[in-house]
Specification:
Mean pLDDT: 78
Largest sheet: 4 strands, mixed
Structural class: alpha+beta
Low-confidence stretches: 18-29, 32-37
Number of helices: 3
């Protein structure tokens, strides 16, 4: 079904159907396996980072930082203490550590934890307070509102 001298289709010929464009991929939708960390039901990346931070033995709670600026906006609520940057922006986390925790090594451990979870090249860690979680009179040990 080629035209003269094998150049292009013959006049009036129906071109063969080539590979179809995946409209989902063209629209920016990613396909993912059910075991993917981003698969529905596994929680958002920000929520997984928050859970990993709270699992660290020296983290008492997450903090919004100055003026509550470190937060992720999720449907119907704010997740304080975690703000994952877009593009070249750094990931930012803000935490209250256990009284007696070594701040610099703990911040380095949290930085590595967030970088491993998110792939971020830069993670800013802010320690807003130290708290004694066993002291009921310590306002920093109280759960965040």
């Amino acid at each position: 079904m080629s035209g003269p001298a094998g150049r292009g289709p013959a006049p009036g010929a129906v071109p063969p159907r080539g590979p179809q464009v995946d409209t989902a991929a063209a629209a920016g939708v990613r396909a993912m396996s059910p075991g993917s960390a981003d698969a529905p039901g596994r929680g958002s990346l920000s929520e997984r980072v928050a859970g990993a931070l709270l699992a660290h033995p020296d983290v008492v709670r997450l903090s919004g930082g100055t003026f509550g600026a470190v937060a992720t906006y999720l449907p119907g609520r704010r997740l304080v203490g975690v703000a994952l940057g877009d593009g070249d922006e750094p990931a930012r986390i803000s935490v209250v550590l256990r009284l007696g925790a070594r701040v610099r090594p703990t911040a380095e451990a949290l930085r590595a934890l967030v970088a491993a979870e998110t792939g971020a090249r830069r993670v800013d860690v802010v320690v807003t307070d130290l708290a004694d979680p066993t002291d009921p009179t310590d306002p920093a040990a109280a759960p965040a509102p």
